[in-house]
Amino acid sequence: MTKPAVHLPEDIRRRIIEHCEAELPNEACGLLAVSDGEVVTVYPTRNADRSPTSYTVDPADHIGALLDAESKGWELGGVYHSHPNGPAELSDIDRAKALEPEWIHVVVGFGGGEPEVRIFD
After folding, report:
1. Rounded distance, CA 115 to CA 35, Å?
2. Alpha-helical segments (H) within 24-76
3. CATH superfamily ID and name for 10-120
4. For the chain, which residues score pLDDT lower than 50?
């Protein structure tokens, strides 16, 4: 059975892009909450690496997002990050370091100037 395509609501897409732009020149990262298979909110988090080439979701921010999502009956089901100087593609490192391989992965690439958002599920 094929999984349905993931829809990223426009307000959530906009919040992700804004967070990624604000963190330039470093990679930004955050978490997505889902309910009934739909993305319902975004949790911008700190990048513990503070790097333009890697990210690690700050553990305290991760716990805060998890507790908030669970208090609303949601679950964490996705992660996003940016590539400040590259395309919106999942790299081999991204795949190897994935918090949860089954999650939705959103990558924002700035390699072409304007932000490009791609969803991998």
Report:
1. 27
2. 59-71
3. Cytidine Deaminase, domain 2 (3.40.140.10)
4. 1-4
